[in-house]
Amino acid sequence: MALSSRLWRLLPLLRGAEQSVCQLARSWGSGGRCGTWGFRGSEVTGNTRAFKRGLLFSALSYLGFETYQVISQAAVVHATAKVEEILEQADYLYESGETEKLYQLLTQYKESEDVELLWRLARASRDIAQLCKTSEEEKKVLLYEALEYAKRALEKKGSSFAAHKWYAICISDVGDYEGIKVKIANAYVIKEHFEKAIELNPKDATSIHLMGIWCYTFAEMPWYQRRIAEVLFANPPSSTYEEALKYFHRAEEVDPNFYSKNLLLLGKTYLKLNNKKLAAFWLVKAKSYPAHTEEDKQIQTEAAQLLTGL
Predict the structure, then answer these.
(1) Strand runs labelled E in the chain
(2) Residue pair 86/117 in contact by the 8 Å Cβ criterion
(3) Residue 214: Cβ within 10 Å count
(4) Cα–Cα dist 220/245, whole Å
(5) What does the pLDDT look like over 76-119, one tens digit per residue?
(6) Which of 78, 150, 191, 210 lies 20 to 30 angstroms, CA to CA, from 245?
(7) Closest by Cα among 64, 109, 70 to 86
(8) What is the pLDDT of residue 10?
(9) What is residue 285's three-state secondary structure?
(10) Where N6-succinyllysine occurs along the chain?
(11) Torsion angle of the four alpha carbons 288, 292, 295, 301, in this order, in degrees rounded to the nearest 10
(12) Nearest 5°: phi and psi at 33?
């Protein structure tokens, strides 16, 4: 429609230009010299056809460019609509706990450069790796695959909080295959990306929760790992249970009951701080959390065991 309207606007100009050329030819047809440039009538008359051909060629070139623009814009709109449709399907499958179907859907677009697709691919690959039926060999491949998707997402758009979050998660996951030195060194990178994700989106409870896990992990680091870290690094990463608790509570304030593991870790952190009353409060909430995923079921079991110990 846009191209047709442009064509109709252009045609009167072409007809007007053609008439002007013919008028010039007739007025200068006496053979006398005319105007500053001194054209002879015969020269103008002789070149009329060539001029019209040139004008027509220019018009067609213009229309070709206009066609290209319209088609390109339509292609972009179509591609954007298609990506949004895929994302809607992906989010529905994720919320429904359809881990394998989600992975099958997204891997069809693994060559995409869309950041929203890429970080979801990282998440889906990681979720498949976490399934009980996934072999250790397959798990390793999937975790490195997830890291590659997250890395591409981050390279594509450094202002995406989700790309920072999943890049940090995936680096943490592959740490088990990299050795203690690399794992500790990566801790600085992981913390940096979690903090960046929180900065970019302070309302994302998951990023805040993950920062809490980072603190909890280094607060309970075994003494021998701490000793290795002190040997390898002048300032090894460290944290406290109090700091971890702060992040877990902050995540809960942003989005109450958003994640069963956050409830569990609130209980476990209070246990580490010898506050059994508050530990029991949060462990009961974790045990009662509706089990939508395999992880939720595992958390229910762990919470029940910890409550029995109390």
Answers:
(1) 33-34, 39-40
(2) yes
(3) 22
(4) 13
(5) 444 566 899 999 999 999 988 899 999 999 999 999 999 999 99
(6) 150
(7) 109
(8) 38
(9) helix
(10) 165
(11) 30
(12) -85, 145
How far is residue 158 from each of residues 111, 196, 207, 280, measured CA to CA in Å? 19, 10, 16, 41
71 has a pLDDT exceeding 50:
no
Range 225-261 burial, b when 16+ CB lie within 10 A, else e: eeebbeeeeeebbebebebbbbbbebbbebeeeebbb
CA distance 204 to 155: 21
- Pair of tokens at residue 67: 């066609």
What lies within 8 Å, CB to CB, of 168 at 6+ separation is: 189, 190, 191, 192, 193, 194, 197, 210
Question: How many angstroms separate the CA atoms of 224 and 232, rounded?
Answer: 12
Rg of the chain (C-alpha set): 33
Q: Helix, strand or coil for residue 135?
A: coil
Q: How does DSSP classify residue 104? A: H
- What would the pLDDT profile of 210-231 be if each residue is shown by its tens digit? 999 999 999 998 888 788 888 8
pLDDT for the residue 80: 60
45 or 254, higher pLDDT = 254
Neighbours of 39 (CB within 10 A): 15
What's the chain's length in residues?
310
Start-to-end C-alpha separation, the chain: 73
pLDDT of 20 > 50? The answer is no
- Structure token pair of residue 164: 């920072």
Are 187 and 174 spatial neighbours (Cβ–Cβ below 8 Å)? no
CA distance 298 to 286: 10
Which neighbouring-strand residues pair with 40? 33
Give the pair of three-digit tokens for residue 192.
């940096």
Model confidence pLDDT, tens digit, residues 242-266:
999 999 999 999 999 999 999 999 9
DSSP 34: E
Tokens encoding 108: 């069809």
Find where tokens 């691919």 sit. 121
